[in-house]
Structures are given as C-alpha cells and as structure tokens.
Design goal:
The complex is a heterodimer. Chain A is of the alpha/beta class. Chain A has 11 helices and 14 strands. Chain A folds into 2 domains: 219 residues, P-loop containing nucleotide triphosphate hydrolases (Rossmann fold), CATH 3.40.50.300; 71 residues, Alpha-Beta Plaits (2-Layer Sandwich), CATH 3.30.70. Chain B is mostly helical. The chains are: A alpha/beta, B mainly alpha.
Chain lengths: 313, 268
Amino acid sequence: MAAIRVEGLQKIFGAVRALDGLTLTVEPGAVFGFLGPNGAGKTTTIRILTGLARPTGGRAWVGGVEVSTARREIARRIGYLPEEPAFYPWMTPLEFLDHVGRIFGLAAEERVARTEELLGLVGLADVGKRRIGGFSRGMRQRLALAQALVNRPEVLFLDEPASALDPVGRREVLQLIGRLRERCTVFMSTHILADVERVCDTVGIIACGRMVVEAPRGELIARYAAPAFEIEGDDGSAGQIAAWAETLRKVRWVTTVTVDGTVARVVVNDVETAKRELLAAAVQAGLVLTRYEMVRPSLEDVFLRLVGEGEAG
Amino acid sequence: MIFPSTAPSAMLRTMLRAGLVALRKELLEQRRSYRLLVVVAVLVAFGLMSPLTAKFTPEIMKLLPNGEQIAQLIPPPTAAEAVAQYVKNTSQFGIILALLMAMGAVAQEKDKGTAALILVKPMPRYAFLWAKFVGLGLTFTAGIALAAVACYYYTLILFEALPVPEWLALNGLMLLFVLVYLALTLFCSTLSRSQVLAGGLAFGLVVLLASIGAIPQVGEYLPGQLLAWGAGMVAGSQGTAWPALGVSDGIIVAALVGAWAVFERQEL
C-alpha cells in the first residue's frame, strides 16, 4: 500500500487552475522531494493532502485512507510543517509542544519526555522556556519541525522545511530528515535543488499543476541529465570565453552553452565527439585554460529542462 | 461533520477531551495576553464608579458656576440611581469589550496560520470554537462577578443594602446580555480573515439589534429587555421578560451553530 496516492487531483481558484490532474505515488519509508517553481502547485497539494483544503476534482489517499472522507483519521497519522509556521507568541516552546501532545492525547509523562526529546533534536533545548514571540524565523522553523513530530507520524509533510535556515541549521535539519527515513514517509516540497540532492531518494517535478516526472533521484539524473563539460579560462578571459561560447552554440553536437564569468558550461548531445573536439576547439580559439572537466549531471540540469518542457507543453 | 467510528461513550470522551484541551489554551491566553486583566479592570472600575457617580453628582454640580441652583433641581440620590448607572455602564462597555475581545478570536488565527497548524491535528473545529466562546465567557463572568461585588459594596456604604437574590439575578441577566454580543462577534470573526472586517460586521449587528429594539412591541423580545427586567427586579418590580430570555439564548445558540457550520466548510 502506497503511503501517499494522488489521482487526477484538480484545484481551481476562480480563473486559476492551481492543480490540473496531478497524479503521484509515494512509497512507504521514502523521502520524496516535491520540486517545482513558485506557483507550480506544491503548497496547494500539501494543503489538500493534510485536509486543510478540498480538491475541486480527483482523489487522494494518505496511508490508505481517503483524505476527503476521513480528515480526523488522517490528522492522527500525519505531521505537518507549513511554509511559514506561526505560533502563539505568548507561549514557550515547552508549552506549545505540551499543548500539541495534549491534542494527540499523550499522557503527562509521555508529553514531558517527548517535549524534551524533540527540543533537543531540533536544537532548542536551551530556549525551551523563552517566549516564542522573540524567536527568529529559523528558530520558529525548528520548532515547527518539532511540533510536526510529536505524534511520531506515519507521513510527514514538510513545506519548504529548510528555506529559512542558515547553512548550519539547514544541514542539521536535512540530516534529521534523512534520519527519519525508514521511520516515516517524508513528503518534502522545496525549490532548493541542493536539498533534494542531499536527502531525497525519490523526486517528483511539478509544473503548472501537473506532474512532469516522478522517479528515483538517481534514475532521473541518469535518464534526463545531459552530459556537460566545464571549461574555465584564465583571469581576464571573460570576453574571450563569451565570444567562444557564441561560436560553440552553432556547433551540431552542442545543446546549450551557459557562461558565468570565466567559466563556460557546455551541455552536449554527443559525448564522444565532444571529448575529441571540445578541448581542441578551446585551444584553437586561443584560450588559456585553468580547468577542463566533464561534470556530473546535476538535478538542476534535469529540473530546468523538464520544467521548461512542462511549462511549454 | 465526521466522527470516528467508535462507541458513543468513547466519542463523547474524545469530544470532551478535545474541548478541555482547547479551553485550557484559551484560558492561558486570556491571562497571558492581559485580556482577563483588561476586562476585569474595566468592568470593576464601572462597578465602583457607578454608585460614586450617583452619590456625588449633586456635590460635583455645586462646584460649577450657579451649581447650587442646578443641584437643587436634582432629586436626592438613591440606590436605584446607582443601579441604573451600573446597568447602563456595564452593558455599554460590556458590548464594546465583547467586540474588541472576540473580533480577532478566529479571524486572526486564520490570518496568521495558527488555526491551520492546530486544526491539521486531531482538534475538531467545533471544539476550537466552543473553547473560544467559553474562554471569553468565563473572562466576562469573572469581570461581571467582581464588578457586581464592587458595586454592591459601594452601594451599601453610600446608600443601602440591595436585595441579594435580585442583585444576583440582574448580574446574571447582564452576563447573558453580553454573551449575546460575544457569540455574534465570534460568528463574524469566523466569516472573515480580517479582524477589522469582523469587528465592523459585529458593530453592524449591534446597531441592527439596537434599531430593531427601538420598534414598539418588538424591543421586549430582544436582549436589551433583559437589562430592564433585571433592574426592575432589584427595584422590586414583578415584571418579567421571559421571551427576551428565550430570544437571547436562541441568538447565542444560532450564532455558535452558524459559526461552526461556516468554519467547518472553510479552507485554512
């Protein structure tokens, strides 16, 4: 039984079609990265799956239970971290987690133990008795993650979980999400590709309310990412690199060329020909190179390509 | 509304537990956000001031130019005037406080996102609303109770003792009168995400009720009649206003059921 199943989900707001027949399946224990540009329908999907919004059409199940008919049953089994978590500013983290524990019907001893455990887990143990009103956005994000875990959820919905965190906080939260693998299914929406590459094992890419592709991360990169080469010129060679890039764009085996200062990234459609001819072309153009390498295709390459196709189609 | 498929007693226990959890949070909020303090302070202040104003208005008048002549025109102050002042002040400021305290109760939680964070968990929406009404209702109960004690004490010192059972009945009726406006404001707060709009709608309902109440023969069925009934009881009148009591209870129930029906269908 799938942890999450969505079939032909539609959501229309007036003239806006936020979801347009979205279909996806997430297997139990997966960390599912739900990728898409702003306005693609990521948050709307999560709001429907958590019972906060109703679909215009289509059906969705969480843990085998249909969302639209058993909202309260779903509520017991999920955790939810919203994109911009809001709390009662007059409460302390200890009080808020205790309140959440009471909502889930935890016994007093269990609430105390769980609250301490979760505050430690998200790095807020030292500020457990401070009012939430004085917290930074990053601290609120950590508390939001803690409150989503109080009931040991079967399925955890995270809407942009690391977007407000500093690099250290982000790494810690992603490590924590990684550790949740096997214990629960994680459905994580984000637009930060590096986070998905770091922690997700399955990726779904959404554009214009439709699922463009859904596959294991490695398979996705292998299937869609075109091989790329990076060539870096000497200091002050930016002009030469830009001019050379212009000539490369006309070459048959080159798909795209992007230039960032003295670095050109060349995506090719014929790797063997590129291996033979690209370096020679650079030398022939009189470039003084400091780096030439064939780079691992990134999820960003796949994302940009598929979202571009999704929006065009 | 979908209830879990369990035995009725277990269902009742679940409902009760959720309601108590939500009420606990509301009571804590009343205290921490100083709502309890503000409501009690304002109502007690009017409880104290009403007999004082009734007693010393002629004295104050004498201090004005030609005040002696004006003071002679004012009849000697009585306990009935103190009660009338108290009823007028407490009911007017009770309505204002009910509007201010309840207009953001649901609207603000929806707007900020705290409602979504809590209601995505197994917290039924009816319990969320019920707790808000009961929490605010208890705050006003405390405020009116203390104001009643303050007013009774000062009236005793400055005038005479008031009949206790009738005094309690008057304050009970005033509490019911305020609860009508509390329930209506909570209903308006459920309709909107803006507490300003909710407050505006509630104020519109206050004006509407006051306007309808001014129509002869209609006013005696409306909540305002509760005040006249209570004040009459303290003055020794035998008149009653049971229809107004029934209508007031009906408005409270209708407002709360309406709020729940609307809230249950809303997306957060």
